[in-house]
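Researcher: Can you fold this with alpha-D-galactopyranose in place?
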Amino acid sequence: MKEQILSKFRSLFGKEGTLYMSSGRINLIGEHTDYNGGYVFPGAINFGIMAAIEPNGTDRVNVYSIDFDEKVSFGLTEEDKPEQHWPRYIFGVCMETLKRGGKVQGFDAVFAGDVPLGAGLSSSAALESVFAYAINEINGNGIDKFELAKIGQSTEHNYCGVKCGIMDQFASLFGKEGSLIRLDCKTGEYKYFPFHPKGYKLVLLDTCVKHQLADSAYNKRRESCERAAAAIRANHPEVDFLSDAKRVWLDEVRDQISQEDFIRAEYVIGEVQRVLDVCDALERDDYETVGEMMYQTHFGLSRLYEVSCEELDFLNKLARKCEVTGSRVMGGGFGGCTINLVKNELYETFINTAVQEFTLKFGHAPKIYNVVISDGARKL
Ligand code: GLA
């Protein structure tokens, strides 16, 4: 990938480019908690996006995507917003940097990646992060990494229509080899947890389906949570986010909110606690508890939060049948991957059974990703 990017950069722009890289992410537990001010527990992975970038002395940005085989140029004012989908992520990062008082001089870039698209591994956060990081360096802006993550998040909000939380961009920027990171999305405090589960593998099974309207369904989930939090806040003013609420406080407003908002909130409050329980369990090397929490999360995401789908539920059930320690839908949902914690000796049988039975039922095989927890954004 590296050589291909550098040589394409040379042939397009007639000079050498400087290489930067950022990563996709997994999340062990803590789903749909980030925009509720709760905990998440992600890590960066060995699938990422690499870009060669160099200032060009103009006020325009010229970017070539190897994967889309497409070159796009845009200026640096709001009126220059590109029509195409992928350049908006880069344009958004430029605009959000400018909004924060950072400098953005025109640049040339070539990029490529191996984060599967639509699999829930945050290819878009990897794209935002690699550009946010590089633009910050090139222009000597000195914006701290947490603010760079917010630049990526605001790009999603303001230029791509997804009201996402901070988890993906945070993981992509703060990722560290061999460690998961517990982030408190309310305070921004985080802690690295070395993650080397002896005798287990972490494997993703990609359903290769991405259901329509996932973005608007995602935004609707967020609205449900905000309505529930507002109702609780009327009784308990200390509740800034839904994650601040106790379960009994939710019960108090049961009659004031819709049944749908109630079950969404019920899931979130349970999930915030599960992240803490998993962190405690990890400190005792108690992978059985970690796994059981993952199954509970899947149940919640499927039945209460309703962001699973037939293909994901099928893989989850199959994991139980194959005695996999933990399994659940990962990321935003509506397709994409399950994340599975599986004992080494059960791995082969699980993968073979999953491929066979899934193919029989859905007519195509799931993809298998053996992820390694890796470093996040950096200059190469
Ligand atoms: C997507 C969003 C994240 C997070 C997850 C669900 O990946 O980008 O902010 O909300 O869904 O946990």
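Model: Folded with alpha-D-galactopyranose in place. Residues 64 and 70 are 6 Å apart (CA to CA).
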